[in-house]
Design the sequence.
């Protein structure tokens, strides 16, 4: 299989599983869960990220920004990436809330709040939106949560405001990082995954992202997502980007 | 006579074709684009990890900058103004000086100098 990743139990191929559970095995043999379920909600457009972009002096594509990142988490083979993504969002700058919420609690609460009927063990995974609602319900997010309209808005928001929780289609080529730290959109789509974007790199023309598969995976648990790949995912409606903003 | 005319026509055609190619090549010369990052000099900004507000500025040449993008996030570089090595952990920004900034107007230069040299916040 391209990219060194392989699907193992409980799903032989793709994501057409009754319970939506997907586990991949990385090149070192360690198994990791996915778990983001993308659901469309027209109401998201009422909360655009573009309204919250700060001032930028010069060309944003020539600027790099990296936020202080909280401890890299490990969801192991669970489908709780949404809970881990939101927890890392809160433990990273500029919120730096330690130890932060329990990622499994956020995940299970999100399962109750998402648009998909059922919960574990009949249904695995949840949406980034439901994760945001769970964070609000538990008081971790005081204001609204907003959504990136396109990749350029996402870049500018990260550059001026802070990290963003991403939910993306996940491809076989993303199971490992290449020698430069990039994941590649190659092979078949195997599911959805949630992770944190905690910076932008002008030299790499890429988003800095943190996974929840421990520090042995990727570049110390992190990876680079090319700007053009993110744009492609946006175009395919295979990427959502959400962050919290304080009410004025 | 016919042969002479034929040779002259061919010579004319030959030079016309050569002229056409020369003109085409001249038009296809790429327009030089200004370098995105100017002279390679970058501005490093240390940001408060809670407020995201800038607290320190430095100038550094790109080749001296080393980033650590896994926890603990940090950056190390050589201060281009003092030659001292600087390292800190936390949130940071790297800005490229645009051409307009390199050739800044007097007012902009003053402002930039105030940030990088004159401000108490510009040094530890």
Sequence:
């Amino acid at each position: 299989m391209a990219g060194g990743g392989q699907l193992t139990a409980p799903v032989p191929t793709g994501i057409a599983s009754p319970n939506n559970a997907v586990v991949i095995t990385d090149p070192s043999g360690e198994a990791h869960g996915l778990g983001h379920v993308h659901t469309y909600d027209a109401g998201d457009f009422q909360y655009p990220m573009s309204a919250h972009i700060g001032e930028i002096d010069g060309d944003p594509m020539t600027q790099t920004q990296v936020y202080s990142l909280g401890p890299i988490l490990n969801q192991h083979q669970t489908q709780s990436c949404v809970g881990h993504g939101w927890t890392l969002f809160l433990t990273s700058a500029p919120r730096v809330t330690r130890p932060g919420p329990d990622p499994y609690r956020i995940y299970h609460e999100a399962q109750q709040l998402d648009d998909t009927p059922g919960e574990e063990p009949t249904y695995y995974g949840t949406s980034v939106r439901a994760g945001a609602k769970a964070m609000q319900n538990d008081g971790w997010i005081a204001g609204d949560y907003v959504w990136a309209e396109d990749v350029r808005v996402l870049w500018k928001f990260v550059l001026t405001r802070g990290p963003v929780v991403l939910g993306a289609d996940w491809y076989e080529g993303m199971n490992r990082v290449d020698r430069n730290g990039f994941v590649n959109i190659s092979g078949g789509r195997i599911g959805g995954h949630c992770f944190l974007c905690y910076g932008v790199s002008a030299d790499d023309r890429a988003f800095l992202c943190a996974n929840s598969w421990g520090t042995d995976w990727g570049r110390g648990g992190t990876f680079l997502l090319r700007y053009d790949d993110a744009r492609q995912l946006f175009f395919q409606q295979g990427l959502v980007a959400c962050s919290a903003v304080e009410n004025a | 006579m016919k042969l002479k005319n034929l040779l002259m026509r061919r010579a004319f055609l030959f030079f016309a074709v050569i002229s056409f190619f020369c003109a085409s090549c001249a038009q296809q010369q790429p327009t030089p684009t200004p370098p995105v990052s100017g002279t390679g000099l970058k501005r490093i900004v240390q940001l408060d990890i809670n407020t995201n507000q800038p607290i320190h500025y430095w100038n550094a040449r790109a080749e001296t900058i080393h980033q650590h993008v896994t926890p603990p996030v940090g950056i190390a570089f050589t201060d281009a103004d003092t030659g001292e090595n600087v390292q800190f952990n936390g949130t940071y920004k790297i800005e490229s000086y645009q051409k307009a900034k390199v050739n800044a107007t007097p007012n902009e230069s003053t402002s930039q100098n105030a940030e990088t040299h004159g401000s108490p916040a510009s040094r530890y």
Residues 22-38, 100-124 of chain B have pLDDT under 50 and may be disordered. Chain B is about 35% helix and 25% strand. The radius of gyration of chain B is 28 Å.
